[in-house]
Write a structure and sequence with these properties.
29% of the residues lie in helices and 27% in strands. It is of the alpha/beta class. It folds into two domains: 2-86, no CATH class; 107-294, no CATH class. The relative contact order is 0.17.
C-alpha cells in the first residue's frame, strides 16, 4: 500500500537513519521535490515523501515516532536533509563506528577511492578482504596480516612486471628507461662474478640498474620465489621514497581486491595509477578520491537538482571505543 511520511518528523539524523533502514528493508520510498519559486527559499525545497509498504512498516515507523499519513504531507525541506534521504552509496559499506551520541551504527563506503587519516578505520574497512597493505609508519600489523618481507619478483606475472616497469619508470627516471627496467625486473641484476671490479670504476652503471639495485639493497624486492599471502602487508618504513613508491605501485597494479597505503608521501605522478578499492591513509589531494574520511567525519557529495550538496557525518570509531574498554 502507498502512504506518506511527514518530512517534519525526519529532521533529526537519527530519525532519517531509522526511516531509511526500515523503508529499505520492508518497502521502498520516493522523495519528490522541486525548486522553490522564490529565490530566498533556495535552500528549502517543496517536498513530499511517498512510501510503499505494508501495515508492519507503518507500525514500525510509528513506533520510531515517524508520522505517517494516507494523504501527501507537503513541507519545505532543507536541501541537506533531502540529500541525506536520497543518497545511497553505490559501493558496499561497512560499519566503522557509532554516531557521537552512541545511538546508532555508522557505515562508511568500502569501495571506490578513499582518502582517510586513521589507520584504525582502514582496518575495519578491510575486514575479511583480500588485501595488501603498504606500511611506512612502523605500524605493527603482524597480529592481523602476514608480512611479505620482500616482493618476490619470480612469483609475479610477466604482465604485472611489465606494468610495474612502465609505472615505476614514469614516476622516477622517465619512460625511455622502461625496457631496461622491465628486463632487469624479469632477469635480475648481474651476479657478483659479472659485476664491475674496482679497477673498472670509470665504467658507467645504467640509471635503470642503479634504480633497481636500490630496491634490492633496501629489501623491497628479491629475485626469487616467495609467498604472496591473501591478507598481507609490506613494510617500507625508513626506506627511500622511490622504494616506497615501488611498493605502492605493486599494490595498485596487483590483483589484490583491496590496497591500503599508510603514510607514504604523495607523488602527483601516482594519480594516473589510482584504482578502485584503494584506501590512502595520509595526506593527498581530495580531488583524486571518491570519499573522504578525516577527523572522524565522513564527507561526500550529493546532487540535488542543479546543486552539489556536501554531507558530513560525524562518528566515533570502533577502535577508539575499544581502547576505552
Amino acid at each position: 500500500m502507498k502512504f506518506y511520511v511527514d518530512p517534519e518528523s525526519l529532521k533529526s539524523k537519527k530519525s532519517r537513519v531509522l526511516f531509511k533502514r526500515l523503508a529499505g528493508k520492508y518497502g521502498s520510498y520516493e522523495v519528490i521535490y522541486r525548486e522553490h519559486p522564490r529565490k530566498y527559499h533556495s535552500n528549502f525545497l517543496p517536498t513530499i515523501i511517498k512510501v510503499d509498504g505494508d501495515k508492519e512498516l507503518i507500525r514500525l515507523l510509528k513506533k520510531a515516532k515517524i508520522k505517517v499519513s494516507k494523504k501527501p504531507v507537503p513541507a519545505l525541506v532543507d536541501v541537506k536533509i533531502i540529500a541525506d534521504l536520497i543518497h545511497e552509496f553505490k559501493v558496499k559499506t561497512k560499519p566503522i563506528g557509532v554516531d557521537k551520541n552512541k545511538e546508532y551504527i555508522i557505515y562508511a563506503p568500502a569501495g571506490g577511492k578513499i582518502l582517510c587519516d586513521d589507520p584504525g578505520v582502514a582496518l575495519f574497512l578491510i575486514r575479511n578482504e583480500r588485501v595488501v597493505w603498504i606500511e611506512s609508519r612502523n605500524l605493527d600489523l603482524t597480529p592481523l596480516l602476514a608480512e611479505i618481507p620482500s616482493i618476490p619478483m619470480k612469483s609475479i606475472s610477466p604482465k604485472l612486471i611489465s606494468d610495474l616497469a612502465l609505472a615505476f619508470s614514469r614516476i622516477t627516471i622517465g619512460d625511455r628507461y622502461v625496457e631496461g627496467i622491465q628486463r632487469i625486473l624479469t632477469e635480475g641484476l648481474a651476479t657478483e662474478a659479472e659485476e664491475l671490479t674496482k679497477e673498472e670504476e670509470l665504467t658507467v652503471v645504467s640509471p635503470e640498474e642503479k634504480l633497481v639495485k636500490e630496491l634490492v639493497d633496501w629489501g623491497v624486492i628479491k629475485f626469487s620465489v616467495g609467498e604472496l599471502y591473501p591478507r598481507a602487508f609490506i613494510d617500507v618504513s625508513g626506506t627511500p621514497l622511490k622504494c616506497q613508491w615501488f611498493a605502492v605501485l605493486f599494490g595498485l597494479l596487483s590483483d589484490y581486491d583491496y590496497v591500503v597505503v599508510n603514510g607514504v608521501k604523495w607523488n602527483s605522478k601516482l594519480a594516473s595509477f589510482l584504482r578502485s578499492n584503494l584506501i590512502w591513509v595520509g595526506n593527498a589531494p581530495d580531488k583524486y578520491f571518491d570519499f573522504i574520511i578525516k577527523d572522524s567525519r565522513i564527507h561526500y557529495k550529493v546532487n540535488v537538482l542543479d546543486r552539489e550538496v556536501e554531507i558530513t557525518e560525524e562518528f566515533i570509531p570502533f577502535h577508539k571505543l575499544l581502547e576505552k574498554c
